[in-house]
Specification:
Shape: globular
Strand content: under 5%
Number of helices: 10
Helix content: 55-70%
Strand order of the largest sheet: 1-2
Number of strands: 2
CATH architecture: Orthogonal Bundle
Structural class: mainly alpha
CATH class: Mainly Alpha
Distance between the termini: 33 Å
């Protein structure tokens, strides 16, 4: 029987264990614990919203979502999100997952830094992004109880400098391919045409999130 953290069973299938081992051996401590927390925040969000989701698919999406930031899996010219999605796809194909399931995990990872879209898609896709947004930006922080936050972070602690650390990991993973950071074109249009427009700053949102560190 699998263990539970904050009432969420930890996936313990052969595939989940293999994914955990691969990510643990590839990512640094900060990214590994972040990825595990993303799973729990995503699952807790799914439970709160009454969504029917596949815990194993959610786990794979959460665990592989930042693999594109690692030296072992980063490409020279693809967005890091796509690198992570491609790594997850190759892993899942080696275990003969159904193509629909592979597509959901691939899309969940590829879109996890694109707010406003995943939340309208299938549960695996929506919940990976929800988990990332909670852990990095503190979005819906107060929808989680103190007990849930404490239990998850007791098993997968946030480092004292997590906010600065996650920004540093982002920078290290993308600074060699700056053209892949081209983003939402609408922000560029507003910056040019609207005198009142104030561009949001992702790093400022991280540093100012509800999390203490």
């Amino acid at each position: 029987m699998s263990a539970e953290i904050a009432g969420i069973p930890v996936p313990d299938s052969k595939i989940a264990r293999a994914a955990t081992e691969l990510v643990r051996d590839t990512e640094n401590d900060l990214l590994f614990h972040h990825s595990r927390r993303v799973f729990f925040w995503g699952a807790l969000t799914g439970e709160r919203k009454g969504l029917r989701y596949d815990a194993e698919l959610l786990y794979l999406g959460a665990m592989f979502h930042d693999m594109g930031l690692t030296q072992a899996h980063m490409s020279a010219d693809l967005r890091f999100e796509v690198d992570g999605a491609n790594t997850a796809r190759a892993f899942m194909q080696s275990y003969h997952f159904a193509e629909r399931d592979i597509e959901d995990v691939w899309t969940a990872i590829a879109l996890h830094t694109t707010p406003g879209i995943p939340e309208h898609m299938r549960p695996t896709i929506a919940l990976v992004t929800a988990g990332v947004e909670m852990d990095v930006l503190g979005i819906n922080y107060h929808d989680f109880s103190h007990e849930q936050r404490d239990q998850v972070c007791a098993c997968h602690p946030r480092e004292p400098n997590f906010k600065e650390g996650i920004i540093a990991n982002f920078a290290a993973g993308i600074e060699h391919k700056p053209l892949t950071t081209f983003g939402n074109v609408k922000a560029d249009v507003l910056a040019l045409k609207s005198a009142d427009y104030v561009r949001q700053n992702f790093c400022a949102m991280i540093l100012g999130s509800a999390w203490s560190s």
